């Protein structure tokens, strides 16, 4: 069930992003003013990529939650676990030195994630957190640290234990592995098969 919800969320958000970008005039993307240092995780000022958002309708990115309240506590918990897994894995796979387009894509995804999340109350709370702690999209470390910090804000509100953000990379390992390592492992498997034949 959680796997289906994760896939559904991903498809809906990806479709909405494509629809939004195809109907907007994103001819030029202005440059990101400066990279975000890990020490600057929590900021009150506007974060990078805001000028690029001017091309998108404010109602699309800043509108309220579109989902109603999710009453079923079991489904709500499953959805939360699956969504956090997807969210943290996405941050862990974000480039360490993202392009302007990469940063804009991540920021757009986060804003739409907050608006389209299937639990209306959860989405509204997440939107409030985004206003207080704007997404940090300057690097993989900044994005992953920011996501952990925001997740801990949710945990605190729900009276759940806080997560040690120093271990976020170990906890949310997608199993994707290093590309060079994966290639090496594939080569070893092919070698084993060749020697058996």
Automatic annotation (TrEMBL):
Main enzyme class: oxidoreductase
Record EC number: 1.8.3.2
KW Oxidoreductase (keyword) present: yes
PROSITE patterns in the record: ERV_ALR (PS51324)
Gene3D superfamilies per UniProt: ERV/ALR sulfhydryl oxidase domain
Domain spans labelled ERV/ALR sulfhydryl oxidase: 72-172
GO MF annotations in UniProt: flavin adenine dinucleotide binding; flavin-dependent sulfhydryl oxidase activity
Record-level GO cellular component terms: mitochondrion
Keyword field: Disulfide bond, FAD, Flavoprotein, Oxidoreductase, Signal
One Pfam family this sequence matches: Evr1_Alr
The protein, known as: Sulfhydryl oxidase
Species of origin: Xylaria arbuscula
């Amino acid at each position: 069930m959680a796997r289906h919800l994760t896939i559904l969320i991903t498809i809906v958000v990806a479709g909405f992003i494509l629809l939004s970008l195809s109907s907007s005039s994103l001819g030029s993307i202005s440059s990101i003013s400066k990279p975000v240092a890990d020490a600057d995780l929590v900021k009150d000022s506007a974060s990078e990529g805001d000028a690029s958002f001017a091309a998108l309708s404010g109602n699309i990115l800043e509108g309220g939650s579109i989902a109603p309240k999710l009453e079923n506590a079991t489904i709500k918990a499953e959805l939360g676990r699956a969504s956090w897994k997807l969210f943290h894995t996405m941050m862990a796979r974000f480039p360490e030195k993202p392009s302007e387009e990469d940063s804009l894509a991540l920021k757009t995804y986060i804003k739409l994630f907050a608006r389209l999340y299937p639990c209306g109350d959860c989405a509204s709370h997440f939107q409030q957190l985004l206003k207080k702690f704007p997404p940090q999209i300057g690097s993989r470390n900044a994005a992953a640290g920011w996501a952990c910090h925001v997740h801990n804000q949710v945990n605190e509100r729900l009276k759940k234990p806080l997560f040690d953000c120093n271990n976020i990379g170990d906890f949310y390992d997608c199993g994707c592995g290093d590309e060079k390592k994966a290639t090496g492992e594939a080569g070893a498997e092919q070698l084993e098969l060749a020697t058996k034949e």
